[in-house]
């Protein structure tokens, strides 16, 4: 129910209590809204529980704390930071942007941040929903959820153990909250799109396969999903949990519940060092296959059952892996033999042949360039295009894109790296002013591309179809044309853009 309030301080009355927000840029914003009980004390490493509500009017003008995570003072040379203080375990809150808290029944976008399962926050200015709400007449929700050891550490190797994916119980609770409450903010609970990037895209797919969540949304946007990741079983995950417990010197979960969260995060950093492998994206914490929340690899949930009926928009950046490897001097010195040995993990005794294939499409490529193209393919591009192939064969709707626009930052070494499409899809470069990877991009080219992408996302959220008048015709992906929208300074639809990669990796399995 819409409360009285005034133009600058809108009020919404919900079953849990009354919220007072604030108008920012002609959009009503409600921040730091609790959607689940704080997962502290004995509730650490327990499934999310409904929030009990509050009395009186709750101030919703400031973001809640971000989930505990590692933090580097001064930021990093790519994003300039991805997750900022304050941090606290009491982090299960969400934020809502709406043109008006009325009864209009607008389409809803729920955004799930990425961050390698260890960083990020729905409270970051990067992910402000203002542009989508204002430009698309949408209601936008961003969420905080448990990450790192507090969200992804799994306990128990047997099927009778508690759910392994505490992060996913958070997201289901948030989506349930949206479904039950979003009408009070002018949204339509029957027209919800869940979108995410990187780890957030994996989350989006996992929700499509969750017994409850899969009935709560109709569309999915998957930006750079790392579907090439191996998702461990409970038994496999238990081995990594044992290493983590060894680092902390804690044998039982009750001992871990007594450890301050700051030390838990430090131990997560130590786990990075123990689990890193040369030529692989480091992922010390991962989703887990369990019986209660995630029965199979997230990519499979979009091919069977209720998840197969969801409209899907999926894509990747051309040089995904440059994000993690392009500026690392240790990899710059890689040799051909090292990369061939790494490629053998995928191509076996055809690794040298695969190296030559990658080298041929990038004249003058150094060994590290071949390595980055290989990682981009096996982690992001190939599994994404294979999902599109399989959905198309089933007659299921799927639109595919590749983000090709390179950044000149760092002498061009990043190319079209992982995360670079984010400020373009949100079209909010003012919120990314501290991000080094945007340096040197000419505003005229930048703004035209951002407008095209941003409006395509809005169109998809509103109708299930990304086409709009300022964009070349974008056909659904099928097994004949394999139409892929190539977003660059000149945007155009291209047939079978990932064909070389798809065929190369397909041959590796023959």
Can you characterise this structure?
With 510 residues, this protein is of the alpha/beta class. Helices cover 33% and strands 15% of the residues. The protein contains 15 helices and 14 strands. It has helices at residues 130-136, 148-152, 166-181, 199-209, 234-248, 253-257, 261-275, 322-325, 329-332, 336-347, 351-360, 367-393, 422-426, 443-463, 499-508; strands at 11-14, 17-20, 22-24, 27-34, 57-59, 93-98, 106-112, 139-143, 187-197, 219-223, 311-317, 398-403, 483-487, 492-495. The strands form 2 sheets. An 11-stranded mixed β-sheet has the order 3-4-6-8-7-9-10-11-12-13-14, with helices on both faces. A hairpin with a 4-residue loop joins strand 13 and strand 14. It is globular. The model has no long low-confidence stretch (mean pLDDT 95).
For the biggest β-sheet, the strand order reads 3-4-6-8-7-9-10-11-12-13-14
**Multimer state:** single chain
**First CA to last CA: what distance?**
59 Å
Question: What is the helix/strand order?
Answer: EEEEEEEHEHHEHEHHHEHHHHHEHHEEH
Q: What is the beta-strand fraction?
A: 15-25%
Q: How can the largest sheet be summarized? A: 11 strands, mixed
Shape: globular
